[in-house]
Design brief:
The protein has twelve helices and 14 strands. With 357 residues, the chain is α/β, with parallel strands linked by helices.
């Protein structure tokens, strides 16, 4: 089969890590007889430098026409001085909106080989590590509600509005229940229904949706309690379903429990098969171009692309197994290195995973 992938290498370590993921994807293509056609497009700081906007129309057009979008990371200090509306990160919000990507899927998996990187006490996670997934609503809520700044008698006042419609909650809840069905069949919906009207609506819509999934257990937590439970008893979670801002914060917290930001992938999905895949970390300007970045989050993002956009489960698993094999053999990039392991750079890690395939 042939698949068209729009590739945004982006800024900082973006090109370093994307190159390794493409190397691994090509190996999958060779082994399983698929062709991945890559069209490289610009977004973020690289687009600002080349054409003066963070998200050129041409990029949106090519992404829309592709089977999936694969992204490294965007942003960096060079562009931090620009006004908010033309910052590199605008490209991400623009792409999510343009492609209708309302669901962000972030697995937080702790590999048993990396148990020492976990900041929690060993008895909290036990022998078998951690495997949960955060499903974050991505195109609604406070990041997209009405906002403004006005001058009042108390000086400047600024406001942002948290707004959710039934339709928005329903479609993200459906994604969470469907994913839970393929996992351990438990959804924890996170809100702030003791205070916020938008959360009370959220909760009632999720409860209604749960009736269609009698095989999936549902419970609710307030966001502050969830933040606490994640570090006290993280193994109680299977699928965490939550809104845009709560998900932004909780998914970072969940990922840090696993110890390294360089290990975790993400997928952003909409109502079609076209999704956007990227590591959860940023462009790490401090190590860009130095062959130091961990490419594993990006490589596993490629596995998610195979699974969710192309329905290639066997191939996705092959990538995940290859990563485990390389970790089990003791190879580590600097961010996950510990004494006695073999320190490798970005390129060598990519090559090792490709060889393990
Ligand atoms: P960051 O994730 O880029 O880096 C945080 C720390 O983690 C740094 O010390 C970095 O070296 C390290 N790190 C990150 N990824 C790594 C990897 N693969 N291997 C080894 N170490 C890694 O976060 P930041 O420093 O807050 O942001 C840097 C830039 O990235 C900013 O411009 C920010 O806006 C942008 N950003 C982009 C995205 C995205 O494109 N999706 C997400 C977050 C931040």
């Amino acid at each position: 089969m042939k698949y068209n992938v729009a590739v945004i290498k982006g800024d900082g370590i973006g090109p370093d890590i994307v190159d390794q993921a493409l190397l691994v994807l090509d190996k999958v293509g060779e082994k399983f007889n698929h062709t991945f056609n890559y069209t490289e497009v610009l977004a973020g700081g690289a687009a600002l430098d080349a054409v003066g906007v963070p998200l050129p129309d041409e990029t949106v057009k090519i992404c829309k026409e592709s089977d999936a979008v694969f992204l490294g990371a965007v942003g960096g200090p060079k562009w931090d001085v620009l006004p908010g509306n033309i910052r590199p990160e605008k490209a991400l919000l623009g792409l999510r909106s343009a492609l209708g990507l309302f669901a962000n899927i972030r697995p937080a998996i702790m590999y048993k080989e990396l148990a020492d990187a976990c900041p929690l006490k060993p008895e909290i996670l036990g022998e078998d590590g951690l495997d949960l997934v955060v499903i974050r609503e991505l195109t609604g809520g406070i990041y997209f509600g009405e906002r403004g700044v006005k001058t009042t008698e108390y000086g400047e006042s600024a406001y942002d509005t948290m707004i959710y419609s039934e339709v928005e909650v329903k479609r993200i809840a459906k994604v969470a229940f469907e994913i839970a069905r393929k996992r351990n069949k438990k959804v924890t919906s996170v809100d702030k229904a003791n205070i916020l009207d938008s959360s009370r609506l959220w909760r009632s819509v999720v409860e209604e949706m749960a009736k269609d999934y009698p095989d999936v257990a549902l419970n609710h937590l307030y966001v502050d309690n969830c933040a606490m439970q994640l570090v006290v008893k993280p193994k109680q979670f299977d699928v965490i379903l939550t809104g845009n801002m709560f998900g932004d914060i909780l998914s970072d917290e969940a990922s840090m429990i696993t110890g390294s930001i360089g290990m975790l992938p993400s997928a952003s999905l909409g109502s079609s098969k076209l999704g956007m895949y990227e590591p959860i970390h940023g462009s790490a300007p401090d190590i860009a171009g130095q062959d130091k970045a961990n490419p594993i989050a990006t490589v596993i993002s490629a596995a998610m692309m195979l699974r969710y956009s192309f329905d290639l489960e066997k191939e996705a698993l092959a990538i995940e197994k290859a990563v485990e094999k390389v970790l089990a053999a003791g190879y580590r990039t600097g961010d996950i290195y510990s004494n006695g392991k073999k320190l490798v750079g970005t390129k060598e890690m990519g090559q090792l995973i490709s060889d393990a395939l």
